[in-house]
Structure formats: structure tokens, C-alpha cells
Amino acid sequence: VSQSRYFHSSCKHKKDGTLINVFEVARTIQIDESEDFLLLIVCTDITDKKQNETLLKETSELNRKLLEQMPVPVAVLSKEDIIDINISFQKLFKLDNQNLKVRSVIDLVSETDKLLLLQAIQRIYSQHDQDLVCEVGMKVQGKEKLKILILGNLFTNKGRDYILAVFSNITEIRSAENNLRALAQELSKQNEDLKRFAYITSHDLRAPPIVTGK
């Protein structure tokens, strides 16, 4: 019958002097019905587990630093849920401490483009060989609207799929394109008017002079 039990992690030396991590489970056991108790200790070598945990922690910290140092807005998504963002992402969408934890990237997307982004995300999850490419309107503090190009790749961590997405502000580019398109249309109209005027002028020049009688 067990009387008491405890758990303990420690470092121990093997006979050859190697230092290992050990997880100990100890308990007292009673032999038959006598008053004598024995202490039973089971030791498990957890050195590899500890090393993996340390490596995982270091890798996680390195990834965090790399994410923060990226000069472009980046977010890690679990489907449309936001798992992590970097400082550039915070600055682009003007997220302060009060609204820093945006739960879903869909919350930042304009109403007219929500379905477009959802379909693009579902497509990358159903077809793992595709990249996420989507252009949508996104809101800054619920007001200002930006034109954002989202480029993302699917990756797996601990058996779960995530999207590493870059958010590029192309508002000025699209505005310039629209202005150029409007200018091209205006020039085309003016060119047609000029051709029409040239045709009429040419026709008038070819017409015989009108002779009036005295």
C-alpha cells in the first residue's frame, strides 16, 4: 500500500561522469502488514527531452526576433485567426495597446472583400501546394481604407497548419493606376475629338468654293 509519493527533476552523473537530466518518482511501500516501509525510486533519463525543450525555446525566441526585425508587415494566421504580428503590422493598421489583440484578420477587411479573402484562405488550406495571393480593402481603426496585397505561404508546426502572410500597402499604386487610366481615357476622348475636327476641316477644304451671283 502506498503511503506517500513525490516527483523530482535533477541532474546526476553516470558512472562515466556524463551529466544527465533525471526525472524521479519516489514513494514509500509497506511490506505485508509489518511496520517496515521501503522507499521505491524510479529514475527516468529525460536528457533528450530537456535538450529538445531547450532547442524549441531557443528556436521560438529566434523566430520571434526574426519576425520583429522584418521591415514589412507580417502576420501568422491560423486560418483567418491572427496568432502573431510584428511591429510593422501594428504600425500599418495603427494598432495600439487597447486593440492590439485583433482576433481575426477578417475583422480588418472591408465588408465587400471579406468573402474574397475567406475563399482565398480556404483554397490554400484545401490545396497545400498553392500560395495565398489576394488583394483586398482593409480598414485602419475602422475608418481609413487601404488597398492591401496579401501574399502568404502555408507551413506546419506541431501538426497544425499556419499561414505566414505579408501585407503590402498598394494604395498609392492603385490610386496612380486609376489616375493614369482616367488620363488615358481623357486623352483618347480628346484624340477622337481631334480626329473628328480634322475630318470636318479637311472636308471643308476639299469642298468647291461657293459662287454667289451679283
Could you describe the 3D structure shown?
The protein is α+β, with helices and mostly antiparallel strands. 36% of the residues lie in helices and 36% in strands. The chain contains 4 helices and 8 strands; from the N terminus they run βββαββααβββα. It has a 5-stranded antiparallel sheet, with helices on both faces. A 3-stranded antiparallel sheet has the order 1-2-3, covered by helices on one side. β1 and β2 form a beta hairpin. The protein is rod-shaped, with a radius of gyration of 35 Å. The relative contact order is 0.08.
Largest beta sheet: strand ordering: 5-4-8-7-6
Helical content band: 25-40%
Mean pLDDT: 80
Profile the largest sheet.
5 strands, antiparallel
Query: In terms of structural class, how would the helical and strand content be classed?
Result: alpha+beta
- End-to-end Cα distance, whole Å, is 143 Å
Radius of gyration, taken over Cα atoms and rounded to an integer in Å: 35 Å
Low-confidence stretches: none
* Proportion in β-strands: 35-45%
Based on DSSP secondary structure assignment, what is the total number of beta strands? 8
Tally of DSSP helical segments: 4
- In N-to-C order, the SSE pattern is EEEHEEHHEEEH
Shape: rod-shaped
